[in-house]
């Protein structure tokens, strides 16, 4: 098991065994399936021929470069496999995009990096166009709440505020609904529609992202990491971290250091 600051998309190759692990879940996959590893997630190839797989890596900064990319990533954060049997049309489309990306990357085209970024955006967009297919897998309802551009702008303003003020005294859902100028109930429904999860879970996820970023920095204590990430105590930090990653923050940091030493 290891993790890194960039994400990976793996197109599973041929072979009798294709066993992958992401966070605490293990998947037995087949040729043509996809594995999605979002930035800073624990993962491992348990038993598979990596040479027969196609691996696409993308930076966290790329995913944070556009609000639409952030929104889509947050919505699909709990989606780690796309099986060809369940989603044949989508997998066929994603496979075509992936191999186009490979061909361009290996070419002498001077604009190959730009072209690959455009294809990666096309990949993410294709995924989002099929979001209704993943309602059951993501354990979420079909998104019935449609928000106006004005409400979307307010939600983006609130999420940006939270990301830049994780140590603020009051980040309650009621306070954020007031900041957006809408009722708490409406805020809750729209927030889940936009992010794919409820507010408290999303807030913990953002705090975790900040904590993981800080854990990669040397010389910072776990208590400092917890406080700067918005956790009120080291005990709550340890509890949430273990629930999300299945291990203590210190163990997680050690795995990151080992991954760097081996790279």
Keywords:
about 10% strand; 7 strands; Jelly Rolls; 11 helices; about 260 residues; alpha+beta; Arc Repressor Mutant, subunit A; four-stranded antiparallel beta sheet; three-stranded antiparallel beta sheet
Structural class: alpha+beta
CATH top level of the largest domain is Mainly Beta
Low-confidence stretches: 140-146
Determine the N-to-C terminus distance. Answer: 14 Å
How many beta-strand runs? 7
Percent range for β-strand residues: 5-15%
Tell me what you see in this structure.
The chain is an alpha+beta fold and 263 residues long. The protein has 3 domains: 7-134, Jelly Rolls (Sandwich), CATH 2.60.120; 149-196; 202-262, Arc Repressor Mutant, subunit A (Orthogonal Bundle), CATH 1.10.10. It is built from 11 helices and 7 strands. It has helices spanning 60-63, 67-75, 88-105, 112-129, 149-164, 173-180, 184-195, 199-215, 222-228, 234-245, 249-262; strands at 7-11, 19-22, 25-28, 34-37, 43-47, 54-58, 81-82. Strands 6-1-4-7 form a 4-stranded antiparallel β-sheet. Helix 5 (149-164) packs across helix 6 (173-180) and helix 8 (199-215) crosses helix 9 (222-228). Residues 140-146 have low confidence and may be disordered.
Write the layout of secondary structure elements.
Layout: E1 7-11, E2 19-22, E3 25-28, E4 34-37, E5 43-47, E6 54-58, H1 60-63, H2 67-75, E7 81-82, H3 88-105, H4 112-129, H5 149-164, H6 173-180, H7 184-195, H8 199-215, H9 222-228, H10 234-245, H11 249-262
């Amino acid at each position: 098991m290891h993790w890194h600051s960039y994400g990976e998309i793996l197109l599973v190759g041929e072979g009798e065994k294709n066993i992958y692990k992401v966070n605490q879940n293990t998947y037995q996959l087949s040729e043509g399936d996809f594995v999605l590893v979002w930035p800073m997630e624990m993962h491992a190839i348990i038993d598979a021929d990596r040479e027969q797989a196609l691996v696409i890596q993308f930076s966290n900064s790329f995913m944070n470069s556009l609000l639409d990319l952030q929104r889509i990533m947050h919505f699909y954060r709990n989606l780690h496999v796309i099986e060809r049997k369940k989603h044949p049309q989508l997998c066929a489309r994603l496979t075509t995009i992936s191999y186009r990306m490979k061909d361009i990357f290996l070419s002498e085209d001077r604009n190959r990096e730009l072209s690959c970024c455009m294809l990666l955006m096309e990949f993410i967009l294709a995924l989002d166009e099929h979001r209704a297919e993943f309602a059951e897998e993501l354990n979420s309802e079909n998104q019935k709440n449609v928000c106006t551009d004005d409400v979307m702008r307010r939600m983006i303003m609130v999420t940006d505020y939270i990301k830049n003020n994780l140590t603020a005294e009051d980040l309650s859902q009621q306070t954020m609904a007031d900041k957006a100028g809408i009722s708490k109930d409406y805020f809750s429904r729209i927030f889940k529609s936009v992010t794919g999860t409820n507010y408290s879970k999303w807030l913990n996820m953002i705090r975790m992202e900040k904590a993981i970023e800080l854990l990669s920095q040397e010389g910072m204590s776990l208590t400092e990491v917890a406080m700067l990430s918005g956790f009120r105590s080291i005990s709550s930090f340890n509890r949430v971290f273990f629930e999300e990653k299945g291990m203590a923050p210190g163990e997680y940091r050690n795995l990151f250091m080992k991954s760097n030493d081996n790279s």
